[in-house]
Fold this sequence. Notes:
The chain is of the alpha+beta class and 326 residues long. The chain has helices spanning 8-21, 23-37, 111-122, 144-153, 166-172, 212-238, 248-253, 255-258, 305-312; strands at 44-53, 85-92, 99-106, 134-137, 157-159, 181-184, 187-194, 201-208, 262-273, 290-300, 314-319. Strand 2 (85-92) and strand 3 (99-106) form a beta hairpin.
Amino acid sequence: MKARHLNDDTLGRARDTLYDCGVTALYSLIAATAAQRWGLAPTFAHLESTSFQVDGRSNSDEPPNAPVIHIPQGSSREPRPDLHPGMLALIVEPQAGMPGLMHPRSGHSSDATACGQLVSEHMPQCRTTDGTPSLGADRALSQADNLQKLSATHVPWSPRVPATLRAAQVALAQVAPQVMSPLREGARWRNLTSTEGGVEQRGGLLYSEPRQTQAQHTVDKQRLKQRAKAAQAFQHLGGTAWAWAAEAPPTLATLPHSLPATYVQESTVRPTAHYGRRGRPGQGAPPGPVVDHLEGALASRFAARQALVDQQSGFLLATNALDDTQ
């Protein structure tokens, strides 16, 4: 091959060929061949997507026809209208860190919809001589419609379950390291079952001791906001004038239910006389009506803090491998 062979016409024809073939399908074929020649037979792979900025300008206001990538204007994650974002989905095998699948995406595409489409269309191309590797992914793959697509491909999977699901919140509230089974040093787990999204699956409630530091920071930050809200509510309650002392205690009893981070440690009812005009009352002036005001102090609920830290230190994984011995 000589230098004159590498001209613009040759490059253009090569790009046209890549366009017709599809860069995602071509790359997965190259990666699968390389993995086979190097003796890499991964038993699991990880799916993740990352965003990046493209220099230049957006190629159109409306998304072009596939497989052209839409480079829109304005980042969806940052208040930067001058940026032109793109995205790249990767499936990486863990032994050599080699991407088994690379799929470019529009900069404004959603992980919740794109991940399921990527797996259903391209995951069978990641098959090796030992079959399809088990797929690990983040919570975007746990959407109900994505689970339906995964079931059709017969790919073993184990994505993380979003903590925003009601069933996940109930499970995470059961994190108790002292009664969970040891998994490895600093980690414990508990077996669960689920039919989320209409797909039978086995869940794992996992507790990670190294997550305690970040969990404490998260819990304390949340509780600080709750304590500020409690102090404001109690101050407002203390500034309210009650006609009878008997009205204040029932109102005070309802306060802790809406303020989980604090409780009323002590409280008293102080009677206060009101006069008919502003300023210091004259000598011998009779007082007006007598009203009652609440006084007291709030305290933090430290007993509940550790339970919240343990809950923040846990997470949920789901898998379609229903054998609980694995």
